[in-house]
Fold:
Amino acid sequence: MENLFDNASRVMTVISFITFMGIVAWAYARRSQAGFAQAAQLPFADEEADHV
Structure:
């Protein structure tokens, strides 16, 4: 029975690490697509439309 818990612990560690790496990869992929400069200008988008 103890062997079962050791194996389950190893499997969960690997699954957790893979999940973590997936989240990191997703975050960096979204970062490059989003464009921080464009996102930083979003609060001012309404003001520019009002002044035209």
Q: What stands out?
A: The helical segments are 2-34, 36-40, 45-51. The longest helix spans residues 2-34.
